[in-house]
Specification:
Helices cover 60% and strands 11% of the residues. By secondary structure, the protein is of the alpha/beta class. The protein has two domains: 130 residues, Rossmann fold (3-Layer(aba) Sandwich), CATH 3.40.50.2300; 70 residues, Winged helix-like DNA-binding domain superfamily/Winged helix DNA-binding domain (Arc Repressor Mutant, subunit A), CATH 1.10.10.10. The protein has a five-stranded parallel β-sheet with strand order 2-1-3-4-5, with helices on both faces.
Length: 216
């Protein structure tokens, strides 16, 4: 996972107009930004790798599969690459819909190079942030999976803010036993701070499901 995170981000340019592709690739090269060009959404999907960081610069109107249709397919496979749409004047309503469907932004033709570069810079920052959060979530979930049923039960009560004495009474254990379980939970979760422990659980709570704490 660390190797994936350290990859240089790539700007994936998808446009059926060869002149536009060449121009955008030259622009990326002029600022030292890695870029790959595709003349159709289908070509991009054939090589798409969820582990490669970057962003997508996508023409909204193309023969065959449109930019909006590609966005729909990427949403279906939970692609997190930020999308910047390139639009003509008449495409603005479609671009607004694309934003509602999760695209990061759109830019109208003709556009200034710096305007696009600024959007790409923001998109790459967002992608890096989202990937870092995903890595953190995966690590928290991995650590939670190492807890025993009893440790998970104690953790549930700890997250609710209960003191060891109260937890002991609630689950019919001695206070000392609760303290031992709590200490093991903290060790396995890699934290010495109760606040940090609670934050970890809250970060991934939506991914856990009710059965996580209820499992016996």
């Amino acid at each position: 996972m660390q190797q994936q995170q350290q990859q240089d981000p790539t700007v994936f340019i998808i446009d059926d107009d060869e002149a536009v592709r060449d121009s955008l690739k030259m622009l990326m090269k002029s600022v030292g930004q890695k870029a790959e060009v595709f003349n159709s959404p289908t070509d991009f999907l054939e090589v798409y790798d969820e582990n490669r960081p970057g962003c997508i610069v996508l023409d909204i109107r193309m023969p065959g599969m449109s930019g909006l249709e590609l966005q729909g397919k990427l949403n279906e496979i939970h692609c997190i690459l930020p999308i910047i749409f390139i639009t003509g004047h008449g495409d603005v309503p479609m671009a607004v819909q694309a934003i509602k469907d999760g695209a990061m932004n759109f830019i109208q033709k003709p556009f200034r190079d710096q305007e696009l570069l600024d959007l790409i810079n923001d998109a790459l920052k967002l992608d890096a942030k989202q990937r870092a959060e995903l890595l953190e979530h995966k690590e928290i979930l991995r650590r939670l999976s190492t807890l025993t049923d009893r440790e998970r039960e104690v953790l549930q009560h700890v997250v609710q803010g209960k003191a060891n004495k109260v937890i002991a009474a609630d689950i019919n254990l001695s206070q000392r036993t609760v303290e031992i379980h709590r200490s093991r939970v903290m060790e396995k979760m890699g934290t010495k701070s109760l606040a940090h422990l609670v934050r970890q659980v809250m970060q991934v709570k939506e991914h856990l499901g009710e059965e996580f704490f209820n499992r016996k």
